[in-house]
Design brief:
By secondary structure, the protein is of the alpha+beta class. It is 31% helix and 24% strand.
Amino acid sequence: MPLNTRGGTNCSEVIAPLPAGSLRYSAPATRWFEALPIGNGRLGGMVYGGTDVDRIQLSESTAWSGAPSETDVSDTGREQLPRIRALLFAGDHAKAQELAEEHLLGRPTSFGTNLPLPEVLIRHQATGPVQDYRRSLDLDDGIVRSAYTRSGTDYVTEVLASHPAGVIAYRITASVPKAVSLQVDVGDAAFPLRRRIDNGDLVLSGRAVETLHSNGRDGVDLTIRIRLLPDHGTPDHSVGTLCIDGADAATLLVSVGTSWRGGSPEADAAAALDAAERQGWPHLRTEHAADVSALMGRAAIDLGRTDPAVRELPTDARRARLAQGADDPELLALYFQYGRYLTVAGSRHDSPLPLALQGLWNDGLASSASWTNDFHLDMNTQQNYWAAEPTGLPECQEPLLRLVENLRLSGRSTASRLYGARGWVAHTVTNAWGYSAPGRGMGWGLNVTGGAWIALQHWERWEYGQDEAFLRERAYPVLKEAAEFFLDYLVPEPEHGWLVTGPSDSPENWYLAPSGAECSVSMGATADRVFVEAVFRMCEEAATRLDVDAEFRERVADARSRLAPFRIGRHGQLQEWLHDFDEAVPSHRHTSHLMALYPERQISPRSTPELAQAARVTIDRREAAPGWEQTEWAEANFIAYYARLLDGDTALHHVRSLVVDASEANLLSYSRGGVAGAAQNIYSFDGNAGGTGGIAEMLLQSDGDEIELLPALPAAWPDGQVRGLRARGGIQVDIAWSGGRLRHATLRAETPRQVRIRCGDDSLALSILPGRSCEVTPES
């Protein structure tokens, strides 16, 4: 299918604006996985839409227990490092494991966790049977609505979390005057909160403390402030709650302030409510809707038409049909946009912290588990941002980039104290306080490339945005210091002289040593090789482009050339370790070494076909193993893996599995109970964002030099269109296809670009000029 191109003077769109869609239900939520999420990048809520009692479960990104610590790094690790390495090279893996556990693990004293906030309870005093109930979340404006009729009166509620105003706002109206009577209270809290009525507001204040992940004393100070504003009606706060009787309508405002990074909880919460009250509901609503729609409207997707009768079903019923094998391409398109919506709701350019394990919404289960609601640096936090750059939400990465830049500061101390190395290092987990030491447990805690892995987000931001000032001032310093660490940390392995890392984990997997012992620490884990190679390559490219650090560039290039190669094991699999060890748990969910396939491109079907086949064998073996640990983020991984393997049909299989097997009634993804010590299904954000990023990868791939259109289009999506995807190089791409073949694509860029366009086996060199669209079509 040879390609043609023609330029145009106008940047016309491939498709007319499509609504992002809405999640719709026919009954109020009765549990967390039925409630609908709202968020302003800092303050979040899960809205239940009840008719007798409505509930908004609150969360806030800086509501953290714990505190910074200077005692997290082992004092004996540095002196034991040579001995542990010698044992591993000599094949005494069990003894090395024992010493690593004793001397290298972190000693967190008050690591902490993000804690859930209580529910706001809104009791409706109306009586009588409820009729014609509807509940929805509109992804275009970020408003949760419910509507119903009761005793002849029509009630409508709208709930939003305003980023411009910094508050949650709840509005209820009635078709009959004086029909709104409410009592507003709060539910139980995960930590002690004092309550009072202050100038008509319900105020709760306390400190976010717990004893599972910290010492029970450290945490942020926090204030929740709630204000009820009736349209007419009579307020009454005499019983310690907020009450109104006989109002025509009412607006409820909620704000939260914390002391994180010097905040003033009481003053900040009060100021936000005062400002929101002055604006009034109409302005709050209009400003919020414009804010959300400006971001959501950057991308649209059409994967084919669903039967109109099915389209009218509630979202949970459509998901149940999908689980039974029915087709519903519009539901999958909705899932794509939902991942974008959650990114917008959970992470803004000015958010104080990035998306945590549970994004912005905290069900209280991760924070009360052995693992915390923190920032996991061995897949989850990275996956939280897979949707940002390719789907037109680059500024949503800003809080993550700032977290990494702050982590670099504490990581310098860890690099020096634990490893005697320059630069910076971080491991598997970090927190709101900049924790960079190893984790406290074997098998996951010694992931020495966790910092390098998350630092790749800086390079991704550069590749998509092409902002040279960002590269010079932010990305390159982070990557350079990461590279400096590895230049000191790498050592030659004795058999071939390859430079390898270690002792470290291939997170979070274990292997069977030749002795039969189950071990995790090793020298030269493949995942480490992937990220060291990536950091070195990026530093070379950046230093060359910026024309700086010639001597450093040469050292990096030399070390990069001496890294251990990828190796194929006796099962035909890509080896996870330097030696051909078998997995202790063949069904393990983690495939960290396959990061070479995605997000990296060190392995691909076109450039390294044998290694690509070995990666496929690895995936097949994991899924086929008894007890396969299917999780939401593993399904998202597999979507992206198979997209890079150019296998759209199998990628779509995992899209469907993500929606029906690892997402709930409200389409929020979850980590399955029984996996990683979870007693029950626990909400985890990464599946939603990862699924969106994976679908984008099925439709568009880029490496900075080449853009591939429809690289992994499944047969089940023969006709469709997508607008607003972004390619590396600062290029926006719209694509339309029919009969499983490209119909046309339109490309735009803000600066001149030279790029090669590929579709299947055909390619075409293209020049894109600023302000002019460039259209690619197949030859007729």
